[in-house]
Design a protein that fits this description.
- By secondary structure, this protein is of the alpha/beta class.
- It has two domains: 2-202 and 387-403, Glycogen Phosphorylase B (Rossmann fold, 3-Layer(aba) Sandwich), CATH 3.40.50.2000; 212-385, Rossmann fold, CATH 3.40.50.2000.
- It contains 15 helices and 14 strands.
- The strands form two sheets. Strands 3-4-2-1-5-6-7-8 form an eight-stranded mixed sheet, with helices on both faces. A six-stranded parallel sheet has the order 11-10-9-12-13-14, sandwiched between helices.
- Helix 6 (180-188) links the parallel strand 7 (174-177) and strand 8 (196-198).
- The two termini are 15 Å apart.
- 53% of the residues are buried.
């Protein structure tokens, strides 16, 4: 089949949605399909185009057998309501412009991936023009996300995104959602249940269990510290200021060290907040080659979310965390999607309660048997629910069904 994939996030972005869109395109190519990707400049999670990717500007290229068309667009250095609207508008305009000049009629289907509203709308337009099936992968929803993100002006963005998003959702012949909570939201927006398929995000990265001592040595961390690591995006919805406040509440004589590893639009602010503190630091993201070692160097892996993040998609880091054979602690809203997903698998703490998070970390640091039990439960859950081959097959089956939807 000849498949056209529209997404705002793709290789070489190292985290988030790009991991899954890249894996999908390459899986389809491996089974013999011809895949063309229309995407953005590599900008996430840095919210800039890193110098090492500056050569990946507007134009065409290939990677691992996938044809890639990139469009230039605004990359805002910070995120608020106005910037989000400008980003989405710029992305929509430029994806549409590039698609008009570079996309012919030789495709059998279009797949778009959101939460970026622009990708959904452009994908729908191309499918309608070519009169071919249109599939939508809902990794997140900008309308719900803006409302829950804490961004100034988020309510305004939410109303606009909700309206535009609805057009893409109702225009799709078939949709994939990545969590039960997301399924409920999409169904609640009036999409027939028969069009909705749930495929939980799987572990698209190969995670190896590296010896802790050698992993610690690689990063220069003391063997006798109790190391807590948070990886991935540093944005508004992660609310990592809560973790900084938790570090302040940790017993001053403890050996607990917290490392926030990654990039994002809150990175500079977090670095300023952590300056001068001995038990917490902000570190740059590591390469894929070092990611397994990073997780293996931890005594405890951390997920933290803003208290309003009830219906958002599940953090992609969880799939790697649970395969790493390291225990997980999650400071997330009670009853939200992440809380439900991790209930019985991780240590759960209420979001936005830094003292409770600090106390939970301190208690776990003294309970090696509980840590081992959490690590075991996490790996068993991953083996049962997050197997990459099972996840890929579900997507490939969905694509096969999509081609027969018109």
């Amino acid at each position: 089949m000849r498949i056209f994939l529209v997404t705002s996030n793709y290789w070489p972005e190292p985290t988030g949605i790009a991991v899954y869109t890249t894996d999908l395109a390459e899986s389809l190519t491996t089974q013999g399909d011809q895949v063309t990707v229309l995407t953005s400049l590599p900008h996430y999670p840095w919210w800039r185009v890193p110098s090492e990717f500056a050569h990946l500007g507007e134009g065409t290229g290939t990677h691992n057998g996938v044809s890639i068309i990139r469009a230039k667009h605004l990359v805002p250095p910070k995120m608020n309501a106005l910037m989000r609207m400008r980003f989405e508008t710029s992305l929509w305009w430029n994806l549409r412009r590039v698609s008009k000049s570079m996309v012919g009629n030789d495709f059998d289907m279009v797949i778009a991936c959101i939460p970026t509203v622009a990708a959904g709308i452009v994908g729908k337009r191309i499918a309608k023009k070519l009169r071919i099936p249109f599939g939508l992968i809902v990794q997140d929803l900008s309308g719900a996300g803006a409302k829950q993100s804490g961004l100034r002006g988020g309510a305004v963005i939410s109303k606009i995104a909700h309206f535009v998003e609805g057009r893409a959702l109702h225009g799709a012949d078939s949709l994939v959602v990545v969590s039960p909570a997301m399924r409920d939201v999409v169904f609640g927006l009036g999409v027939p249940e028969s069009r909705i398929t749930q495929i939980t995000n799987y572990s698209a990265r190969a995670i190896l269990n590296v010896d802790k001592a050698s992993a610690r040595s690689r990063f220069g961390w003391a063997a006798d510290d109790f190391v807590v690591i948070h990886t991935g995006n540093m944005g508004a919805k992660q609310d990592l200021e809560n973790v900084v406040r938790a570090a302040d509440a940790v017993n001053g004589f403890s050996k607990i060290k917290i490392y926030l590893v990654g990039h994002g639009n809150q990175e500079s602010n977090l670095k300023a907040l952590c300056s001068g503190k001995s038990n917490i630091a902000v570190l740059p993201a590591v390469s894929d080659a070092d990611y397994s070692a990073l997780l293996s160097a931890a005594d405890l892996l951390l997920v933290n979310e803003r208290s309003t993040q009830m219906e958002m998609s599940l953090p992609s880091k969880l799939t790697s965390y649970l395969y790493s054979e390291r225990p997980v602690i999650a400071a997330v809203p009670r009853g939200g999607a992440t809380w439900k997903f991790l209930d019985g698998v991780a240590e759960l703490v209420e979001a936005a309660d830094p003292v409770a998070l600090a106390r939970a970390i301190e208690e776990l640091s003294k309970q090696p048997e509980k840590l081992a039990d959490l690590a075991r439960r996490g790996r068993e859950f991953a083996d049962a629910n997050l197997d990459p081959e099972v996840g890929r097959k579900k997507y490939l089956d969905w694509v096969q069904k999509l081609i027969g939807s018109k």
